[in-house]
Amino acid sequence: MMGGWGMGWMWIWPTLVVLGLLALVAAAVLWSRGRPTPPRDSSWQDSSSARRILDERYARGEIDEEEYRRRRAQLE
Predict the structure, then answer these.
(1) Is 47 a residue whose pLDDT tops 70?
(2) Where is the SHOCT domain (predicted)?
């Protein structure tokens, strides 16, 4: 009836589905590689952050010099 033209295009849908799945997998891989992973030993970041907060509190006058030096010694 169709002269064979209908059967010639039957392969395009499975191909598009496979290409779509490959594109999704590729996007997921790129997305997961784009996110930075935290280092396993982040203790230096914790102390750096605590030191920054302590410095800010001292600069704002929330704690005096004695308290600042005592807490700073505890961080080191």
Answers:
(1) no
(2) 50-75
Name the pTM for this structure: 0.40
Give the distance, in angstroms, between the CA of residue 74 and the centroid of all CA atoms in the same chain: 31
- Quote the pLDDT of residue 17: 93
Distance CA(14)–CA(18), nearest Å, equals 6
Burial code (b: 16+ CB inside 10 Å, e: under 16) for 4-34 equals: eeeeeeeeeeeeeeeeeeeeeeeeeeeeeee
Residue 13 contacts by C-beta under 8 Å, 6 or more apart in sequence?
none
Report, as an integer, the average pLDDT of 44-69: 86
Q: Looking only at Cα atoms, what is the longest distance across the chain?
A: 96
